[in-house]
Batch of 2 targets.
Target 1
Amino acid sequence: MRTILVFGLPGSGKTTFAAKLKELFGDRAIHFNGDEFRKTYNDWDFSEEGRRRQAERMRNAALNAHAEGKYAILDFICPKAEYRDLIEADYEVYMTIPPVRDYPDTTAMFEQPNRSFVWDIESYEESDRSVLDLYSLIMEENYDYNAPTALMIGRFQPFHAGHKALFLKALEKHGQVCIAVRDMPQDENNPFTSFEVTEKIRKELIGYVGKFEVIILPNIVDVVYGRDVGWTVSKIDLPPEVEAISATEIRKNMKQLNLNFPNDFDGAHQVGGVNDQTPKIYESPDKGKTVYERDFGAAPSTRRVVKTSIQQQWNITYSYEDPIPM
């Protein structure tokens, strides 16, 4: 188990960051907030002695969380290096967003961190990205390179609902999956760089971090083996409506919308998803202001405006950087 310390001046976004991180961990982590601790113990002593006592409480809370088999997220000012040393956090996140309120005594005693491994968060935009990055980094520690693992090789241009369904089947069968992205020359059929593809896959599979690895391979065109290699090549059959999802069709739909490969893709067009019965295509030419739905393979003229959250209605695979704002 790991301890994550989120510290910084009052009003710098500590609790917001910690709460988002806790949301990703779910019941695998406990979020301890410094203000709530002071309320619980009715201890409003902000002297150095009182602040050290607060740090000791937070450290003990983390140890108790570990005893329960849970990650600990500590969210408090923790102004001095000696308090941070007392915590012995595995990950330290320093919030440097300009504080919305100022306490001169706290500002005066606050010591800047000097450790190279501290995450330095300077804006709310960076905060949102770093929450995902930190969560992924921590959970990837659970990936076991010696455990039996399934291998998926593909271009994933783009990664869509069919790919995710295949991933889930492979995960169910073997418990771990290595997704290998072929490094293709960019053209109309390969609008994304291999790096962009890997980033999209990681975001799409954020709920399975620690159970998969994404790597980039050369442009593999043949897999060869001799005899008794100790592994097999298997085809997993998926439901017809899932197998019908086509990256070629997705790219064609993007072209019909006159999107500029690949720059207009992020935030401008949803590649598709499936419900229990019929494959659907979701599009947003105005970058999220209006979301359209149409049957897979149907003409763009048949699309319908979606008035409620499609994320609640369908199993959507988003293939751009951020979900469509609803």
Target 2
Amino acid sequence: MVCPLLFCWAIKKCPSGAVKGENYDDLLFLEEGDHLEIFCPDTLYTHLQRKTLWEGALEKDRETLMTQIPTNPEYEQQNICGHWVHWLQKDFEDHEQWYWYFLLSYPAKLVRRRD
């Protein structure tokens, strides 16, 4: 099942049929070790073969792009495109592209890690 990505590093559940409403119950928050595959939206629902833009295990990078918080200068947090985030994908070179995958709700497939 392919579901749209959301800005908060989560994907939206896609039960059979339309999703009613938008709330936290509809989200699957990404966790370290989960396997994520992000697809090109232009190839998802056409005759074209589905194109994978990124695929891999999620590894949290909590250090890249650390920025001093203006309203609380003694603290820092990661900032991407003017938004505060709690982590970025490790070894993903274009962090702004990672952000846009979620903001623009790119379709994705999530497989939870097995403990």
